[in-house]
Structures are given as structure tokens and as C-alpha cells.
Amino acid sequence: MLTRLYLSFLVAVVALLVVGAAQAGGSASIVAGDNLDDPGAQSVRSRIEFDTATRVRVQADRGVDGYLLVRDAAAYAVANVNGQTLVFDYAQTMAQFGGMARSLAPRGLVTDGRFVNLTGPGRIETIAGFSGRVWLLTTVDKAGRERQDELVLTRDPRVRELTDALLATGRIVARAFPELDAEANEQLATELRNRGTGLLRIGNSFLLERLDPATPAAARFMLPSEPMVLPDLGGLLGR
Question: 143, CA 20 to 30 Å: which among 3, 25, 128, 170?
């Protein structure tokens, strides 16, 4: 299953996929949750800004006052603490303050099941102005339970580039979640890369709402301050 794409805010999905020399970046709105067909179910809408797959900024429309920034093959948690903007290494923040760190990670970027196969194509769907085809993804979790999800895939290069950014972010973020198998991401990413496709929808848990191909300003991917080194709270508490 594609992680509660924010673990059920991820999913998030991952190798740095190559979509060609003309990568220009853009910004998108995605929504992810447990069941987007149920108005009462929890969901999170996020703004994704990217300048190729190597610089990505993810900010939720509600929750923690901060955002996730990926650059230089590393992830950082940027948060407002008592009116001051602080930067933390994401993996270390996850280890010390799991709940806050999880809320900054984009749901739907990471898979929690190993790829089995992808069958199709099926019917045509148009999502956010992009035409795609429905495929059926089969995965199996660590307990051996099999799961099937519909994926709507498109060959549009703009969506492929966004997917590359999401998958690259998922690959980096997955390192901070010991319960996840990062290799599962690599398998799905390879399949998407080989097909030259990008993601428009994952079942009823992930949906692309809007994609603007205009390149974000470079300042959007700058760290507002030097990353802080958190103290070993376990050591301080005698654990």
C-alpha cells in the first residue's frame, strides 16, 4: 500500500528518475488521506514546490507550522518555534520528535508494500486537466498480505517530473522510518521510470489537484538558517 502518503500524510514513493534535459520544476497541490471518498475521513492537502527532483519543498495546509525541505540529498524540518524559524535534520528530528516530524512528511510518497506487478491499461481518466489510464498495482506487505490499488498514470512530462520529485523525497524520508522498507519504493519507482509515466491518482488515498509548471524562485529552496543539532534527549533522561 502506498504509505498513509503522509504514512496514511505520506506516501509520498524511490530512485531519482530521469525525465529528460528540460526539467524546469513547478508547484502542485495534492491531497492524500485514508479515504478521499469519505468526507468525514482524515485527509491532508499539501503544496509541493520542486526544482527538478533534487530540490523539493512540501508544506501542508494545516497542522504543524513548518515545512519539509529536501536539497543536497538530505531532508530538513523547518519549523516556527516561539516565533523563531529553526532548521533541523529531518532524520534526527524524527528520532527525537516523531509526531512533529511525521506531520511534515508528505503522505503518499512512500510505499509500505513490496511491488508485485502492475497490470493494464484500463479506462481513461482525466485528472487536474491531464489524461491518464487506469492500472492495477499489486503489492504485498511484510506480513504477506496482498493489496491492490488503482493507479492513474500519464505520460505527460510535467506530471512525470512532479512524480520524480515526490518519489525522490519519499526515498530520502523513508530512511527516517524504521518500519518502512525503502527498497519497496525503489521497485515501484523503477517500474514507473521504465514506463515513462507519472502519477495522477492512487486509489482513493492520493490525488493530484493542480499542477503549475512555472519554476519556483530559487529562494524557496534555501535553508533559512543553519541546521541545529538536537541534544540526545534519551541520554539526558537516562534512557
Answer: 170
